[in-house]
Amino acid sequence: MLTPTTANPDIQRPVLAVAMLALGGIVWAAGEAGGTRLALAALVGGCAGLALYHASFGFTSAWRRFARERRGAGLRAQLAMIALTVLISYPLIAHGHAFGMPTYGWVLPFGVAAAFGAFIFGIGMQLGGGCASGTLFTVGGGSTRMVITLSAFIAGSVIATAHLPEWRTLPAIPPVSSISSLGVIGALALTFALLAFIARVTVIAEKRQHGDLEAPRETGSVLTGPWSLMFGAVAIAFVGIATFLVLGRPWGITSAFALWGAKVASGIGIPIETWPHWAGQTARLEASVFTDGTSVMNFGIIAGAMVAAALAGRFSPSRSITFMGVLTAVIGGLLMGYGARLAYGCNIGAYLGGIVSGSLHGWGWLVFGYLGSLVGTRLRGVLRMD
User: Fold this and answer.
1) Secondary structure of residue 172 in the 3-state scheme
2) pTM to 2 decimal places
């Protein structure tokens, strides 16, 4: 993962100009293809890319750091981000129609397929070097290796769609919504209690290991970075809430990867429209990617991260990649792509998206995704990736 520097940056103005033009082009194309709503979604994606880069807000590195060093600041920032988001998302899901903002959550079953998918995703994100959002913002930040990870991620996603009908026949717990079961207040109380419990565990573990909590990184500059983790958490919560307001549903990332891969496969003559998962989706396969809300947000993330990297003076793609770097990027990307489709998404779409929807499957994803991350962290050590 890219790490912001605390030095005063020399803004890379040519790169910044290209990045701003790219973001503007994405917003324009989204607006032309899907109207104002999708243009706004692209802008929200740009904000996400800026925030993810400046705060170095990565799920992968935060989980790995807690596993290895018992430093939990990154984990606690994620929990704070979720807490801020549910304050708005739960009432919107329950009463959005009353305010003229129809919204819905993702409440899905959780069983063998989803658990296995989350587990191998956790392994893959450690080998690949980033989760779904991390892959996008590091690509935008200039990481050549993460382009390989993203390509493999897309391939793994479309391969998984060939097998989804069989996976979906495996045992699963039916969908459970805390909002429907407990009401908004009850669901908020339960979610806050669980988040507080996890945060407390990380504090106890960190103090036991080090005697005190690590001093937080301070925000250097809002424009050029770096940002503190908590500043980043607030910004990412804004992205999640804005996604609800603009698209009417949680923030997602990886469904677009499957769509991109399916379009490529169809373009080279693979009869993907005959696969059960894609049957009946011919129009979607033939339509412009700029009509897909998740796709335009993803494009926005890449462009927004490139803007952030240029502002920080750190956009510097490297062509030097070792064979092991390529191999682990490919394996990690394939595991993430395949796992995300089995588990209804990644750390954003399934973990964050599930919890901010009040769905049990989000918590299930967290458990099995983290277990996979522990295995992936161990593999990184064996392969001497750090």
Assistant:
1) strand
2) 0.94
